[in-house]
From TrEMBL:
This is DUF975 family protein. InterPro entries: DUF975 (IPR010380). The keyword DNA repair does not apply. It comes from Exiguobacterium indicum. The keyword Transmembrane helix applies.
Amino acid sequence: MSSQLKKAAKESLSGRWGFAVLTVILFSIIQGVPGLFGSDIDEPANTMDLVVSMVSILLIPVGVGWTWIAMSIARGEETKVTDLFEPYGMFFKVIGLAIVQLFFIFLWLLLLVVPGIIKSFSYMLTFYILRDEPSIGILEAITRSRKMMDGHKMEAFLLLLSFIGWALLGIVTLGLAFLWITPYFSVTFAKFYDRVRGEQTPEPTSDFVAPY
């Protein structure tokens, strides 16, 4: 399964590597912004930590934007660099979803590390779902992800493990190879989402279902 998804990802990236690498460079620069605030030694540590945390939260939609660009590439859709900022159009929902998701994972981690890791896989499709269904509620997106990942968590784990060699290559090249590895990884997981979604027909939920 992993090899098929990777092959499909390479096919989707064919002819679009330049765009993908350029977007990763911009994405990396933006994600590095919080680190700039840590260089001001004249400010108290607590103040700088607060600033860095706030800036990091404000940049969460950019990370989601990269995920959505990877989805577009995986589906052969037209996309542009400025689509990185598309999630800011639903800023509060994106931030709220990220916070609630992390809160649930944190609660599971309080029990044991392994359940926390397992739940992180259960919730990994939430932002993919949000892109396809922007009107969906925060808890419903998390619940939908949990249901879609039933029976697929091990597949996702093995898919992640299959990139360890690539990650080592990225480290050996002092991060340079990640300019190509990141699109490859992201588009592959977008393919994974589309495959899982294609296997299921979401049913409307009239009653509350616990997202955890």
